[in-house]
Amino acid sequence: MDKACQLASGPKSYAGDAERVAFLFTLYQRITSLLPVARQPAQRARRPSAAA
């Protein structure tokens, strides 16, 4: 698993499983996202519409 992550620009070793999984989710987000991860705009809160 670590060799596969190294091929995807990951570190040579991980402190534990949580760090390894975090790296895999980062890769997944990068692959499936339409926008670059670092440049995604913040979501604006929607105001509730005024009821008549």
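That was protein one. Protein two is written in the same sequence-then-structure order:
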Amino acid sequence: MSGTLVVTGAGGFLGWHVRVLAHALQMPEPVIVGRDDFRDPNRLVGKLNGVDRVLHLAGVNRGAPQEVTAGNIEPAQALALAVRQCPTPPKTVVFANSIQAGNGSPYGDSKAAAADILVQATQWTGSTFADLRLPNLFGEHGRPHYNSVVATFCRLLADGAVPQVHEDRDLELLHATDAAALLLGPGGPWDAQPVRRTVKQLAERLHRFATCYRTGEIPDLASRFDVRLFNTYRSYCFPGHYPLPLEGHADDRGELIEAVKVRGGGGQTFCSTTRPGAIRGEHYHLAKVERFMVLRGEADICLRRVLHNDVVRFRVSGTEPVVVDMPTMWAHNITNIGDGELLTLFWANQTFNSARPDTYPEKVSP
């Protein structure tokens, strides 16, 4: 898609994933509608007038019943009023609704009411309205005890605790980037089909991931869902769990170090040399698992979460072998800071596909 994109709730979990995907697809920078805009009808009209697509993501998931109800209905009312007052109404309004809409809970009923408010407004203006009923979303950097049970389990496991399942039930799950693709409607190569798992199955799978990964091993990533679930877990490990130390095995012949051990999978391994002062990388991935290991020389590995400013830096050396795994949706690079040649080993969980490389240019320095 092209043209002006407006996003409400851009600072939230889903909002960040939407903006990252839009950024990766080189769409125009979205216009952000914040809380102050909702309080000022004229400002809100100014941001909506004549735009191509409005993504309404703002809302409240948890809290006191009155807070949840107001947090979903009031933004919809403000948005609907502004759409009606636009001299040139938005062409399309997309509402990030929930499969829980109308289920009798404050959240479900307020989401259903918000959809009705937006339906009436867009019918009146002639705008296209898309009511996108999303299942339970999970993904990198979700808020524990708020966005999803996956975020809560990942946080507990990254902190060394074990999740407890008090009430098992079926969940319909969708990664937030897949939800972002549905909201943006780019027609990209995303399989946005939800996956069903029980809470107990999630806890067990994530526990296996964590137990394996604590040793530096890569768990069996048998499916697309497993890759995205593992990447979600890894986001809670970064940066405190890195670099990952490696155990060496030495004898009179020399030294052996196991750089990558993958349970039930392969991927692609390659090496590169880098001249003093040169930089490699300057990109990010949406789903690829990637590992760096310096074999000879001195290097800085730098990373920055996409659409954020703070840079995380690791100084590594071939004399003390460690690995650093690149978190998804973090721009990263490696710089030779030594006087000699830098030799680096790289591993990725998938072989390179030039048609779908999952590599998006982005400088680490903001």
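The chain has a mean pLDDT of 94. Keep this in mind for the problem set.
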